[in-house]
Design a protein that fits this description.
Elements lengths: L6 E8 L8 E6 L2 E7 L5 E5 L13 E2 L3 E3 L6 E3 L14 E7 L2 E7 L10
Antiparallel strand pairs: 1-9, 2-3, 3-4, 4-8, 5-6, 6-7, 8-9
This protein binds FE2/S2 (inorganic) cluster.
Amino acid sequence: MSTQAVGVEHVLGRLSEIPPGEGRAYAVAGRQVAVFRLRDGTVRALDAVCPHRGGPLADGQTDADVVVCPLHAHVFDLSTGACRSGQDDVASYAVRVEEGLVVVVLPGTSGSADRTG
Ligand code: FES
């Protein structure tokens, strides 16, 4: 039994562009996505804009589980995007490294009508 996430893959760049333990923001498909390279060699991806006052989450301090916004120190779970300090959550995205390239999966339209109004 497996759940297939619907989404569109985007190659963001080389993993080697991100120092271990740090994050980097990428503009992709109209979003700002922050990719974090953890010291254990794995990667995480969240929305790059802090929901508190728009701080740059890619510039925050990370540990194995969380990133701390550099502006007012709200704390976000790197795996789920859940805020651990009472603000709104941020979106988290599936991300992996393939042949040295960072590949993120953003939500796709999956063919359904996108209606407004
Ligand atoms: S802008 Fe991120 S904590 Fe205030």
